[in-house]
Design brief:
12% strand
């Protein structure tokens, strides 16, 4: 009799424990502001292409991304987007994220003053929005990166502070394809640079270029995608970045580096 009573108490205790632990899990999910707890160990990669659109390479890049069923982010140059609005529209229609990389890409004029920079950024934003017919995120990439030394250190600091105040996020990178280190960079150098920089990265933002001369970047792209897939990365665009992705990128000094 006493034995079965003890057994009953133990069973009751186990049931209470199971009930409480399931309750805890539900709350953990709810407290995660929309991010899935099951994805806490997820590795994420953002493929980014600067300097486009380009008539010869944008369609090729788009085809490779589509063939591999992955999406990327294009930081486009305003004057190029203005003369090729159909390419911008095509990128967007195929689920790619299109964001500004300045209108002029002219370092000298772009970084001469805060005012000049803001006008240029706005102009690039308008070109993209006109081409796609929709509003874009307040996310962009500085030509030369956020720590470029083209303007005086003070002017650059003011520009960074102003865009942050206005609610923009600027995106640098932690994985470089090195495809802009020379006019022509070999496919193996591009693939190996990406592999080397991505080792151990939980979040990766890959810098590549979509420019007329960058055909080796296009050739390298399938190998780059294959490598990230084999290493279990989830591909995202900046439209899809979660709050936790953004927080991680801020901590890694990829977004809004001061
Ligand atoms: Zn650029």
């Amino acid at each position: 009799m006493r034995k079965s009573l003890n057994l009953g108490i133990i069973l009751l205790f186990i049931m209470c424990f199971l009930y409480l632990s399931s309750f805890y899990k539900v709350n953990a999910l709810e407290n995660h502001s929309g991010d899935n707890v099951a994805n806490a160990d997820e590795k994420v990669v953002f493929l980014t292409f600067d300097d486009g659109p380009s008539r010869n390479n944008t369609p090729k890049i788009l085809n490779i991304l589509k063939e591999n069923n992955v999406y990327g982010t294009f930081f486009v140059v305003g004057y190029k987007a203005e003369s090729n609005p159909e390419l911008v529209k095509r990128l967007r229609d195929n689920g790619m994220c299109v964001l500004p990389h300045s209108y002029s890409h002219n370092y000298k004029s772009l970084y001469s003053s805060v005012d000049g920079f803001m006008k240029d950024l706005e102009r690039c934003t308008n070109v993209i929005e006109d081409a796609t017919g929709e509003r874009i995120l307040k996310v962009f990439r500085f030509p030369g990166g956020s720590d470029n030394r083209v303007s005086s250190l003070d002017t650059m600091k003011d520009i960074r502070a102003t865009v942050r105040d206005k609610g923009y996020k600027y995106v640098d990178w932690n994985i470089s394809s090195e495809d802009a280190t020379a006019y022509r960079v070999s496919v193996s150098k591009i693939v190996n640079s990406v592999k080397k920089d991505s080792r151990g990265a939980k979040v990766g933002v890959v810098l590549m270029h979509d420019a007329e001369a960058k055909d080796t970047t296009v050739e390298a792209l399938p190998y780059i995608i294959k490598n990230f897939k084999e290493n279990g990365y989830v591909f995202k665009t900046f439209d899809e970045a979660t709050e936790s992705d953004i927080k991680t990128m801020e901590l890694c000094r990829i977004i809004n580096r001061e």
